[in-house]
Design goal:
The two termini are 12 Å apart. This protein has a 10-stranded mixed sheet with strand order 1-2-3-4-5-9-8-7-6-10. The longest helix has 20 residues, at 294-313. It has helices at residues 29-33, 39-57, 122-135, 150-160, 163-168, 206-212, 244-261, 263-266, 294-313, 317-326; strands at residues 5-14, 68-81, 92-104, 109-121, 174-178, 185-192, 196-201, 217-222, 230-234, 275-276. It has one domain (2-326). The chain is globular and about 60 Å long. The protein is of the alpha+beta class and 329 residues long.
Length: 329
């Protein structure tokens, strides 16, 4: 059945001239920034934030704080079922992730960064904004459907194991997300020179369980001069498998995005303490000068989940269920 799935990878530069592709999820963070009257200023300011943060973290042999800049590529992954059947070219936009590349202006080198970072998925929208909501409709207590996230997790692992992924990327992905505002995080004694201080949550979240089905583990670190931990989802050994510059490229990119999207947490005026509970209603925070429509993003997640249901889940339900039930790496 694996041979019936074909993955196609498309790349587009995320710079101040970026325009979202027609099939880009419009709730995707970077797509949201690239619309409206302030689109070019938004993009320019975001990229400057990323470069400044990168140089602040990569401060060695960098006296003026301008040695590096970060280039970003948006990686769009299309999936075609029954790809070998003649005339079947109905590709479904499966996921979008970001790829970082680092430009060292001192040595004139372009250094490969990390793939992953931001993570967008129509099927995840379906799972959380359609399936989960429908399952809990009119119920007195919250519960999770049987096999929740199994299909999405298997599709993701299938993609990582595909020739398409191996052809384009040399290391497994690292996905970097915000901490959850309904969990409490405790500071540990562990400290990494780049990732910073490690935190541990008081309990596992539904997001953690969902990403675990994708094969990903999670650790929480608060980088130097940050005010809140970030959630790093990864394969293998996060601390050993990636260089400092690779890790910095992810931190600088995703922390900058989070300062825009969740300023109550990531642009707070005081840093997380020994025992930390994120608060999206925190008034003691600063705003960036970058325009972002958070309400629109939440509303559109449901629309895009329904799109996945109509265009992908329902038409191929029997094939996908059978494939996922028997899928092994």
């Amino acid at each position: 059945m694996n041979n019936d799935f074909r993955f196609t990878i498309k790349k587009i530069c995320f710079d101040e001239n970026y325009h979202p592709l027609d099939n880009t999820r419009i709730t995707t963070n970077f797509a949201n920034l690239a619309r409206g009257n302030n689109r070019q200023e938004n993009l320019r300011n975001t990229l400057k934030m990323i470069d400044n943060r990168f140089n602040a973290l990569a401060h060695w042999d960098n006296p003026k704080g301008d040695r590096y800049s970060v280039e970003l590529e948006i990686i769009s992954v299309d999936m075609n079922i029954n790809a070998d059947i003649k005339g079947n070219d109905n590709a479904f936009p499966m996921i979008e992730i970001l790829k970082t590349n680092i430009v060292d202006h001192k040595t004139n080198q372009r250094i490969e960064g990390i793939v992953g970072n931001n993570f967008s998925s129509y099927v995840r929208d379906y799972d959380f904004s359609v399936l989960l909501l429908e399952h809990n409709k009119d119920k007195a207590s919250f519960s999770i459907p049987d096999n929740f996230g199994n299909l999405h997790g298997n599709l993701f692992k299938c993609f990582l194991n595909s020739e398409a992924y191996k052809e384009h990327f040399h290391k497994p992905p690292v996905i970097c997300l915000s901490v959850s505002d309904n969990k409490t995080y405790h500071r540990t004694e562990n400290k990494h020179p780049v990732l910073g201080v490690e935190y541990q949550p008081n309990e596992s979240s539904l997001t953690e369980q969902y990403f675990k089905k994708m094969g990903l583990q999670v650790r929480y670190f608060m980088p130097p001069n940050s005010v809140s931990p970030l959630a790093f989802f990864f394969y293998g050994d996060l601390l050993s498998d990636y260089t400092n510059l690779e890790l910095i490229s992810t931190i600088s990119t995703m922390e900058s995005f989070q300062k825009i999207y969740r300023p109550e947490i990531y642009n707070a005026n005081s840093a997380a303490g020994q025992c930390y509970k994120p608060n999206l209603k925190n008034q003691d925070h600063s705003l960036t000068q970058i325009v972002y429509d958070r309400e629109e993003r939440s509303r559109l997640a449901i629309e895009q989940g329904k799109f996945a249901e109509e265009q992908f889940i329902k038409p191929y339900q029997a094939i996908l269920d059978q494939w996922s039930a028997n899928y092994v790496l």
